[in-house]
């Protein structure tokens, strides 16, 4: 038991899981943070990313690590389209009141149904899979399959990139301004419309990349998105809504819980541990780990 | 807006539908059971979330608990007792969890309720697994005509309960909470007590509904009894019908059922997609719901 | 707001108009035979259901190519009336009520999944309409009143438990690690497997369960590796089967007998896992090498759908169609005659002979398949095996 806990193997598993959760949740947090929209179709973007990657590999032999960029761009364009056609009007007219939150839940839910069923119609609901980088590598006494290592590295890198972007790039800083002080951001001259558009693009793009990474190790099917949506919501609420670093911390915490927590108890307790921790945390801290204590309207 | 007049209208509609078993075949009785189920669930959800603004995304937990109670007490207690226990268990669960849960606000509350429903689902799954069960089958359940009238009764009860809350001080207090919780508290509204009461009241009928559906499905599996889609559907029908109106759940459910039947019959392949598109259009163009649009109700 | 109102009204009106206009009515020569069923097009079963629907479609195509379904002296083309049950058994029950009472179909085919079959059974009994079930496997099925529903599958949990223990014993296995997903099928099998293993004097060195949404098995598999059993029995579902195989490969679990319950027979499995899938044993009682009909089915399926049929669900579904076809030939469309024909007849299918006793198919033997060099072979029981079991030597 002790040697299992101390092993690098478990640590790697925790990191790999945490990085996936972090990347999936990132885009959702960004979209919520800037626009207070609850994107319950987020997991379906992961699904779309998975499909694009699968078809690129199956039809064109393109490595997922190469098609990543194309997948991200395609999803980002989808985000731009969604914003222009559907959300700009809704956000502009009413601002960010509570009605927008409830309505956005339903709007995205409707979109989710459409996207899932469209995918089922076009791709057929049969699950797909492809093999890539599945050889086992050994580092000391830790064994890792190539694709899991690649997924960990890409996810971690992308999360870092987004955090740095929000810290140093002008547009990133504008996004941060929008997330933290919407009214003040407008006063200071931030082009709200453009930033919201960019948030959609980045949000959708990162979700699709997560899907690309996941497709290396899991099967892809039209209805696979929902569990990712759930995981993403749990992560961002736990971390504090709109707090990107908080979300990442929460993601890794969940990764640790899922590996070490399970090692200490039993695999049987996995879901109870995860949801139990989530519920207990929120009851103790209603604003999440790093959320602002002020009332979220 | 006149809730009492609305109540009479809804009860009359429900009463009128009692002739269905005499006229229609098994299929229409089945449609009736589904319709009443959604009316009962949506009405209960609205009385909490529509009035107070605390959007519950985990309401299926009460439904699932009710199902579980009836299935586990099958042939141990009479059905009437089992259904009462189902409603009671849901209410007790709401009471016990309500106090800490209702301190959480806004979207945090939304996801928290979802998390609680999932937690209970996995706990039930683990409990069943430990007992050696993975699914349960109950045999010898009542006829569908009986289930039809049971569900009709629950839909009526849910409507009466919703009416009772709306016209009472509780209802006004909840609306005040929705507008501005701090202000309401300053004005003397017993905020915590009212929220808890609404939470518990919104749980009873879904518990009983879950129990009746256990009798209808005869098969219990935690994954299905606690299916999140049930929670989502409640919200969708409530919003489409208009969540601040007693007729809302009825209108929303009727609309959905009518649409489902029509699309199903004529375009079964694209049924779900059409539903999704319509939901999107609704939110964009009719955010106040059908009742808000058709009857031009002024918000109280 | 009036512009918005008119847009809205127009869209709603068009939606209704579109829905109404999609009503497709068939005008044909001989009156078609209408066969109704519900299928999980959306929801949690949606990724599994195509293996069944495809088999149905293939059968219909073949029957119609032969001129139609033989009913007594005449041949009538087959037409399907299908609805999406959204993986919801309650919805499926409603659909079958509709098919029988509203759509007034001539025959019925089965929906997907054990819970769906169970929900539909009372409807069939109440409305006295026979249906041959397929993708359902639970000993609970025997509790259903026989007479209007039958099950072609031999993969019933108690039989699986017994046979698996027998196969393990025959191959000299002395210790196993038993990993069980808490979903119904796997849990039920575990219930029968544990006592069977005990009788065969096989020790269970690791015995763990896990929830269906598990994402990581590192801790669990490290434990298994340390226990070093002769066999690992992963009673898993398609969503966690790949997880087990990947992580077992990663950690290098050395057990020579590797059993994965559901997944290996599905098309994507070897594509996702490559050589790691080789040598894995799974449940199944059919392979294309079974007989000439089986091979023909396999070839035409692959040609039409560009993917392999699922060795479990696709074959079971096709079998139920064949049974229906043969029963209708002698009994016509009269329901009580059909019922007798199915209950008493002996049928020739792509999996050999089938005969029902009560609700159960008692002729087909419960068996196991193994992936060998990318091909699926039947390795148990010996009487119908197409290849011999080989221990798994590497990942």
Keywords:
heterotrimer; A: 297 residues; mainly alpha; ABC transporter involved in vitamin B12 uptake, BtuC; 76% helix; B: 300 residues; two-stranded antiparallel sheet; 15 helices; 77% helix; 1% strand
Summarize the structure.
The complex is a heterotrimer of chains A (297), B (300) and C (395). By secondary structure, chain A is mainly alpha-helical. Chain A has helices spanning 2-6, 8-35, 42-60, 64-94, 98-123, 146-168, 170-180, 182-188, 192-215, 225-239, 244-264, 270-284, and strands spanning 136-139, 142-145.
- Count of helix runs of chain A: 12
Strands of chain A, total number: 2
Number of beta strands of chain B: 2
The biggest beta sheet of chain A is recorded as: 2 strands, antiparallel
> What is the CATH class name of chain A?
Mainly Alpha
Structural class of chain B: mainly alpha
Task: Please estimate the helix content of chain A.
Answer: over 70%
Q: Could you list the spans of chain A in which at least 5 consecutive residues all have pLDDT below 50?
A: none
CATH T-level topology of chain A: ABC transporter involved in vitamin B12 uptake, BtuC
Strand proportion of chain B, as a percent range, falls in: under 5%
Cα-based radius of gyration of chain B, to the nearest Å: 19 Å
The overall pLDDT of chain A, averaged over residues, is 90
| N-end to C-end Cα span of chain A | 47 Å
Q: What is the number of independent domains of chain B?
A: 1
User: What count of helical segments of chain B does DSSP give?
Assistant: 15
Biggest interface, chains and residue tallies: B-C, 45 and 54 residues
CATH architecture of chain A: Orthogonal Bundle
Low-pLDDT parts of chain B are none
Order of helices and strands of chain B: HHHHHHEHHHHEHHHHH
Nearest-integer average pLDDT of chain B: 89
